[in-house]
Amino acid sequence: MDFRSLPKIELHAHLSGSISRECLHEVWLQKKERGETTLEDPLVEMPAGKFDYDLDTFFPLFSRYIYSLCNDLSSLIYTTNSVLEDFQADGVVYLELRTTPRAIPSANITKVDYVQTTLDCISKFNASSSMKTHLILSIDRRNDLPVALEVVDLAIKFRDQGVVGIDLCGDPAVGEVAIFRPAFEKAKKNDLEITIHFAEAPQSSTAQELWTLLSYNPDRIGHVIHVPEDVREEIVKSKLGLELCLSCNVHAKMIAGTYSDHHFGWWRETGCPIALSTDDVGIFGSALSNEYALIAEHFGLDRKQTCDLARGAIDTIFGSEEEKKRLREIMWK
Ligand code: IMP
Ligand code: ZN
């Protein structure tokens, strides 16, 4: 089966984590030529074939390296276009990209500029491509409430340009999620959709945290790894959409064992809509087509089951009914 030509939906992809090493290298070369960077070459910093980033080494990669390299308008535009092209070339027909609004004072870029720039790239791409993309804005767990409310306000401001929801992400070892209640309440009140990184690591999987997060009424949850039985029952009862990421969980050792031990095997029986997703394809190196190939291989899915899995994600997109109709036409052909 050709997994690249299978029409696919990607719902859990972080913009800065989806930039390929080659693209980062090109940005670095251009900056090097202009004498604008003293950073190490991305291909040295993140060698080809190195995917074994764990929760301790993964998050600093952004704050220490990728954000320092992608720190002006031209690199933001170049890398965003490259990410969109990569998803399209992999056979993605609908993408919900997420990003944490980031001000870059050294380049005079505000968070508004950052979101506007990302949306401009997306809207140009949407106009000339069969892949349609929407944007989700992320709150980082290390943020305080005013910053989180700012993210929600940005999402409201840019809703008519393609922002569809709010995400909660970031290092699961950091932060107290209970402080974000007013931000998620405001998002709901303004009809924004909500997705939340959920039970990603043992530290972020206490009963208290998970019930707090469910009380924010998320429409989808991501990862869903370390979930106690009573919380699982609630998720199944509410038929929440699940964003499941395979390679990233295996490489980062977020699950015990390997591909065939992934909790996809458990959730697939529950009737919750599942969107197989990449998380950070630039870091973990497995395109969505490869994630489908791995799932098919390790869970014995035949062609029809694989197509049905891909189609199942339609029900949980944050896009419109019209978009769902378009996807049904493409994916049931
Ligand atoms: P950005 O939001 O476009 O800058 O993408 C990178 C950011 O996404 C990182 O700084 C993290 O906060 C977040 N992120 C990426 N992957 C993960 C993950 O697996 N868990 C939680 N947060 C993540
Ligand atoms: Zn994620």
Topology:
Elements: E1 8-14, H1 21-33, H2 42-45, H3 55-69, H4 73-89, E2 92-99, H5 111-127, E3 132-140, H6 145-157, E4 163-169, H7 181-189, E5 193-198, H8 207-215, E6 220-223, H9 229-238, E7 241-245, H10 247-251, H11 264-267, E8 274-277, H12 281-284, H13 288-299, H14 303-312, H15 321-331
Parallel strand pairs: 1-2, 2-3, 3-4, 4-5, 5-6, 6-7, 7-8
Helix pairs in contact: 4-5, 6-7
Bound molecules: inosinic acid and zinc ion (ZN).
The site of zinc ion has 6 residues, from β1.
Low-confidence stretches: none
Let me know the CATH homologous superfamily. Answer: Metal-dependent hydrolases
User: In percent, how much strand structure appears in the residues?
Assistant: 15-25%
Looking at CATH, which topology would you report? TIM Barrel
Main β-sheet, spatial strand arrangement: 1-2-3-4-5-6-7-8
Distance between the termini: 16 Å
Q: Main beta sheet: strand number and arrangement?
A: 8 strands, parallel
Tell how many strands the DSSP assignment holds. 8
Chain-averaged pLDDT:
97
Overall structural class, as computed from helix and strand content, comes to alpha/beta
Q: Mind telling me which CATH architecture this is?
A: Alpha-Beta Barrel
H/E topology pattern: EHHHHEHEHEHEHEHEHHEHHHH
Distinct ligands, ions and cofactors found in the model = inosinic acid, zinc ion
Choose one word for the global shape. globular
Whole-number tally of structural domains: 1
What's the CATH class label? Alpha Beta
- Classify the helix fraction into a percent range: 40-55%
Q: Give the C-alpha Rg.
A: 19 Å
Number of helices: 15
